[in-house]
Every structure is written in structure tokens, then in C-alpha cells.
Specification:
- The chain is an all-alpha fold and about 210 residues long.
- The chain has one domain: DhaL domain (Serine Threonine Protein Phosphatase 5, Tetratricopeptide repeat).
- Helices cover about 70% and strands about 0% of the residues.
- The protein has nine helices and two strands; from the N terminus they run βαααααβαααα.
- A two-stranded antiparallel ribbon has the order 1-2.
- It is globular, with a radius of gyration of 16 Å.
- The mean pLDDT is about 95.
Length: about 210
Amino acid sequence: MIVKRDDVITWVKAVAAIIEENSAYLTQLDSEIGDADHGANMNRGFNTVIKKLPDVNDKDIGTILKTVGMTLISTVGGAGGPLYGTWFLQSGIKTADKFTLTLTDWTDALEASLNGIKMRGKAEVGDKTMVDALTPAVEALKKCVQENINLSEALNISADAAKQGMEGTIPLVARKGRASYLGERSAGHQDPGATSTYLILKTAAETWNGS
């Protein structure tokens, strides 16, 4: 199994749909420890992404992902724009000129995204951010590459790891972002960024396993 360019476009469209579907939920999570705008901001960003896709749907995967990243940077408010924009920009750089993706390609792209996010946000595992969901997802993919697991199964394993990372943010005390201002009161709440990260990776598994 490989992921084709059209599969990537289908995934981006599916991400936009799942973000819209969960917009109120993400905003509710953010209202508990943040600015109560994560869902609305992400929804606005991906709605704009959908409008940009027709301009790049005949381009390589890298160009498509970089377009998504630049659009999110320019339309998603707060810290989310630069962070999620970095995700797609770094993935786009790693997949430049590619029209198909293997498991190794996808793993390398997500690892580049994670490194870019950590550099931009100065966050590490345990800080109660999107890094807590993305890191185990990447580590799971890398292990799947080493063990020669097929892409379909690896996507599911990665999404499950992201879910565990997301749920693992609940007891944490936030050390980065708006939530860190709450100190100990931030414990007991699931991080909205980790949640949207899980949704994006779950959608990749569901979309590409159905392609």
C-alpha cells in the first residue's frame, strides 16, 4: 500500500470536515484551560485551506502540504497558526516532488513536523501540548518502519499512540501556552492541541485505509 497524491488531498478534505465536526468540542476543551478559540480558529483555517486546494490539486504532495501550512499560518489565530502551519510546512518540505508516499516517507515527514513544532513552540513531552500526542505517534511509526509493518497497520498504530498521548495530557500541569498561566488548575483537563493532533492522525488512518 502507498499513499497517492489524490489520497493526500482526500485526507486534507477529511481533516477539514472532522475539525468542523469537532469545532465546538475543541473550543469547549480550550475554554477550560485556554482562550476558548481553538476549535473556531482551526475550523476557519481549514475552511480556507479547502478553498485553496483547487489551485494545487495537480501538484506534487510537497506543494499541497506547504500550501496547507502557509494557509494555516495566515488564517489560524493565536499560537495554533504557526504551530499547525509548521506541521504542514515541514511535512511539505520532506515530501517535495513526491507523488506517492511510503511508510518511510510519511514517518520522515511527521518526524520533521514534530521537530519543527518543538523548535517553534519550545515544548517537550509532558508540557501538556500537541507534542504529547504527536511524539508517541512518530515513535510508533519509526518502530513500525524498523519492524517492516505495512503502512495500513502502521497508520492505525500511530493513531492509537496519539490517542494515548492525548489522554495522557489530562493529569498534566501545563508548562507552555495560555494553559500554563493556570498552574495546578490546568491539571484534570485534556489539552485541545493534543486533541486536534489526534483527530488529524486518526483521519489519516481512516482515510488512507479506505482508499
